[in-house]
Amino acid sequence: MGDVGQSTANTSNKEMTSNQDELILAQQRQIEKEISESIPLVGELEPVTSLSSEYSGDDIYLAKVNDLAAKYSSMRRTRPDGNCFFRAFTYATLERLLGNKEEFNSFYKLAENSKNVLVELGFQQFTLEDFYDTYMDVLKRLADIDNVDDARRELHTVFNEQGYSDYMVVYLRLLTSAQLQKEKDFYSCFIEGERTVADFCHQEVEPMYKDSDHIHIMAACSALNTGVRVLYMDRGTGNIVTQHDLPEGCTPTVHLLYRPSHYDILYV
Amino acid sequence: MSTPARRRLMRDFKRLQEDPPTGVSGAPTDNNIMIWNAVIFGPHDTPFEDGTFKLTIEFTEEYPNKPPTVRFVSHMFHPNVYADGGICLDILQNRWSPTYDVSAILTSIQSLLSDPNPNSPANSMAAQLYKENRREYEKRVKACVEQSFID
């Protein structure tokens, strides 16, 4: 292997013998394939108590499931692919807006203008348009359906079509990135290390499959002008799930369940 | 059938034709838009100058949400290019963004030729020579340049 072996240089290095990056990527793809075959992008409504079956014999979690069930009746699971926050948040936001024409229309207007904002911030118009067009296309399709139940069914169908669903996620990632960059003085305090806000956006926000943190959620909320309540369920002490409203003090319209590194949608 | 990936690749191709970046070119193969051939010309004022390096780009239906697989077909001597032509470049792996297109990929690889990253070596010999014996490094690169005329 390697390039011409006659040199006197150290030849014991292993990285020349195989392309490690591709091996890792191949394994990642296999894991993703298994997940995508077993869990839909956005699931059907199910009772919150269905969580109990995942935690039989686990007293801490079972107590928390009970507490959660006292506050919320049902939930929708999302596929754990690193996009779960963005997918859950967009889905839940639109699902609610479909029940309120007036609010939906102002959301639509905000979306229509968003492309110019992104272009002004330096996003490349050519690639941006591909995502923007799809995003608007979906919003238009939903707006054209008068019956709320029919519109929600269409939303569910669209969000389970990989092509559309992922493009919706990409566009929200771009809007979130734009929001972070617009208010970079504020957000820079939340970024660890030497990275600039723009670096952080390129590395942690815009790429697909990258998990979301508090900072992503804060920016996404302000990009869509929506408040979210996150219920945290983990192995921490106590029998109740803790909750956080983002932005602080808002009246949340979207409710999400967080279990370590994953978000699902909750319904009161 | 038109899928988001295929539709997007048509757009990428159109843009590459209308607004071609200096020193790179690329086009889908005759019967398959998911596989492209590309050429990167060695950047001026680098040992790669005058070389014409051929690459293949393979897309999946997940493009642009996932990066394509890019590989040099021409023999390369570069700290971040594997013996099989695979390229170690962050934007083709964990720092890929769906806002990149073929044009951005090719220009990034072109700048990788000018600015190797010897701290993340795919070819440790090239990385070592680049750091410790620049003259020998350049000699080996020039050999690739000459070979690229024949390939």
Characterization of the model:
The complex is a heterodimer of chains A (268) and B (151). Chain A is α+β, with helices and mostly antiparallel strands. Chain A folds into 2 domains: 1-38; 46-267, 3 helical TM bundles of succinate and fumarate reductases, CATH 1.20.1300. Chain A is 53% helix and 12% strand. Chain A has helices spanning 20-38, 59-71, 84-97, 101-120, 125-143, 148-159, 162-182, 184-187, 197-205, 214-224, and strands at residues 42-47, 74-78, 228-232, 242-246, 254-259, 262-267. Chain B has one domain: Ubiquitin Conjugating Enzyme. Chain B has a 4-stranded antiparallel beta sheet with strand order 1-2-3-4. Chain B has helices at 4-18, 102-114, 124-132, 134-150; strands at residues 24-29, 32-41, 52-58, 69-72. In chain B, 36% of the residues lie in helices and 18% in strands. Chain B is globular and about 50 Å long. Chain B has 4 helices and 4 strands. In chain B, a hairpin with a 2-residue loop joins strand 1 (24-29) and strand 2 (32-41). The interface between A and B is medium-sized, with 33 and 36 residues.
The number of helical elements of chain B comes to: 4
CATH architectural type of the largest domain in chain A: Up-down Bundle
Quickly count the helices of chain A.
10
Query: Going by CATH, what is the homologous superfamily of the largest domain in chain A?
Result: Peptidase C65 Otubain, subdomain 2
Mean pLDDT of chain A: 89
- Helical/strand content category of chain A: alpha+beta
What secondary-structure arrangement, pairings included, does this model have?
The complex is a heterodimer of chains A (268) and B (151).
Chain A (H helix, E strand, L loop, with lengths): L19 H19 L3 E6 L11 H13 L2 E5 L5 H14 L3 H20 L4 H19 L4 H12 L2 H21 L1 H4 L9 H9 L8 H11 L3 E5 L9 E5 L7 E6 L2 E6 L1
Parallel strand pairs in A: 3-5
Antiparallel strand pairs in A: 1-2, 2-6, 3-4, 5-6
Chain B lengths: L3 H15 L5 E6 L2 E10 L10 E7 L10 E4 L29 H13 L9 H9 L1 H17 L1
Antiparallel strand pairs in B: 1-2, 2-3, 3-4
GO molecular function (chain B): ATP binding; ubiquitin conjugating enzyme activity
Protein name (chain B): E2 ubiquitin-conjugating enzyme
EC number (chain B): 2.3.2.23
